[in-house]
Write a structure and sequence with these properties.
- The chain is of the alpha/beta class and 210 residues long.
- The protein has one domain: TIM Barrel, CATH 3.20.20.
- Helix content is 33%, strand content 22%.
- It has an 8-stranded mixed β-barrel.
- β4, α4 and β5 form a beta-alpha-beta unit.
């Protein structure tokens, strides 16, 4: 585990050498939402740059976002690629979390690679081996079911430092300083506009589920 952490930090330092403008994001072409967001879909429709929308589906063992289906319908009506994400909980078995997500996923048509959201809020990262083991199992369950590794969203350097398991997957990184320095970054969350998280993906084809 220590050797893997050293390798990760070396990759970050190498990335720093090549990316001088580490906070720059050229544009936004996606959004991510949950029941916390009130979306002005007419405004989204008028923004021709927005092409994809990730929607919260589930959290932990039993929570299911009450707006998931409605958000998905509206996103589809506005011609957006739709993807779903699950909020990872350290105190729930990976099997229970996967079953919770899969029940919603099977009912909501989606186009994008599923996402596992890994954040500090509500989680305990004190036992990093335990967290990495649980997340690793959940990643494997996603991969076996959907035919590809899930994208991992993370919103802090703490997660990036203590959970090396996430580096096995494509990454979606929140607008933290130096986000361009993170290896394997596929999506960048770079701004909040009208209370909506705005994202950028350089090549949307890389996040479309085949």
């Amino acid at each position: 585990m220590k050797k893997k952490k050293v390798i990760i930090f070396l990759l970050l330092f190498i990335g720093a050498f090549f990316y001088a403008k580490s906070s720059y994001v050229p544009e936004f072409n996606g959004i991510d939402i949950s029941h916390h967001n009130k979306v002005d879909w007419e405004k989204i429709k008028k923004n021709n740059a927005i092409k994809f929308c990730y929607i919260k589906a589930t959290e932990g063992k039993s929570f299911r976002d009450p707006m998931c289906h409605k958000h998905a319908e509206r996103a589809k009506e506005n011609g957006l690629y739709v993807g779903l994400y699950h909020y990872f909980r350290t105190d729930v078995t990976p099997e229970a979390q996967f079953e919770n997500f899969k029940r919603i996923y099977d009912k909501v048509p989606s186009d994008l690679i599923p996402v596992i959201d890994v954040e500090q809020n509500g989680n305990n990262f004190s036992d990093t081996d335990f967290v990495n083991e649980r997340l690793g199992i959940l990643i494997r369950l996603f991969e076996e079911s959907f035919g590809c590794k899930p994208i991992i969203y993370t919103g802090s350097w703490c997660c990036l430092k203590v959970i090396p398991t996430i580096y096995d997957c494509p990454l979606w990184v929140r607008f933290i300083k130096g986000h361009n320095l993170v290896p394997n970054t596929t999506i960048k969350q770079a701004a909040i506009i009208d209370n909506i998280d705005m994202d950028y993906c350089k090549d949307i084809n890389k996040i479309i589920l085949r």
